[in-house]
């Protein structure tokens, strides 16, 4: 990391001499065991990362991505099954008696047109579900996850004489749509393949420095519900509103009234979000339309709060329409899209207590950072919520080099899903590989 700070040639020599003096030349030249194993892989992992970044595929379309990862796992010595829950892949490495650890990466990218100007930026365009022409980008860092995943698979294969048990490595489709984990579970992930004792995953962090990882025990990410609402009215001429029931006005009142759910109905110390992400109605200035369509995202940390919000949305929609005098047969239609529901994610505290000392030793105390819980969502949660439950842990990997971290004090960093977000590939990938490999070794090591 120090090498990334721009120092003059002279200062570098002075710095190197000081380092040798303080820590001894042997210590400076002797890499840690995982670094030595990883070093020969770095070039091909860099090429893999840039290939994946330049060739992203949307959720439910991860065909080539899955094929490439299946090939990489096979080459690393795993027994691979493809087509699990759609484009999902499962690689199994059995290594005698012991526990089973699952390592998950997601495969999918987003309908975002990349604006990073990187030499390996994605130029891919495709059609989305509505037939719109869209750019495709790994704007959530899933390409980093996949590259670190392949690196982990290779290192675990090299370390085979130092661990016992089974490693199950899965490439999961459609994380961004909230449906991939459920599809893999329904397709027999825990029946057809060894059932894990622990599940691990990592995610890029767009506000954490490279070389660092972030963690939190207990609740880390919110539940996600996607709700469609159709406010129906009675359309007509814009100049004769008294002959209509205007759904645009009702929808406006509905959007404002929704904001009282979190501020007035949910217990103030419970965390929740209700966002209207899309609202569409009408065709022309002087026509009052028959309906307005809205798309909402709802975030919560507990099932109780979640249910409370979903019930309130329905009640407010109907209430606002009735207040406006909409006829009973034109009441709003409220649909919770259960196929896109994601439960809240909670990291298992005892598992965290096992892994944290390992990471602190590996990366240094100052590079293992406690992070705040967030209102984002992850269907990785589903692997833990089976019966009986399985301890899961997702940690974050820092992706912003020190220079950009410094600059961020004046210019804010782009968030995940931004067309401008880009992880500094190195040492982000190396940190991910080492942290994940060390975690698996802690759980399966001899
Ligand atoms: Zn995402
Ligand atoms: Zn993501």
What does this structure look like?
The protein has about 450 residues and is an alpha+beta fold. Helices cover about 35% and strands about 25% of the residues. The chain is built from 13 helices and 18 strands. An 8-stranded mixed sheet has the order 1-2-6-3-7-18-8-17, sandwiched between helices. The protein has a 4-stranded antiparallel sheet with strand order 12-14-10-15, covered by helices on one side. A two-stranded antiparallel ribbon has the order 4-5. A hairpin with a 5-residue loop joins strand 4 and strand 5 (about 135). Helix 4 runs antiparallel to helix 6 (about 140-160), helix 9 (about 245-265) packs antiparallel against helix 10 (about 305-325) and helix 11 (about 350-365) crosses helix 13. The relative contact order is 0.17. Mean pLDDT is about 95; it is low at about 1-30. One zinc ion binds near residues 140, 176, 416 and 417.
Brief write-up:
By secondary structure, the chain is an alpha+beta fold.
Please specify the SSE layout and strand pairing.
Elements: H1 9-23, H2 25-29, H3 33-38, H4 42-54, H5 63-75, E1 79-84, E2 88-95, E3 100-106, E4 125-127, E5 133-135, H6 142-158, E6 165-172, H7 180-186, H8 189-192, E7 198-209, E8 213-215, E9 218-221, E10 223-232, E11 236-237, H9 247-265, E12 272-281, E13 287-288, E14 291-300, H10 303-323, E15 333-336, E16 345-347, H11 349-363, E17 368-370, E18 392-400, H12 402-407, H13 425-444
Parallel strand pairs: 3-6, 3-7, 7-18, 8-17
Antiparallel strand pairs: 1-2, 2-6, 4-5, 8-18, 9-16, 10-14, 10-15, 11-13, 12-14
Helix pairs in contact: 4-6, 4-13, 6-13, 9-10, 11-13
This protein binds zinc ion (2 copies).
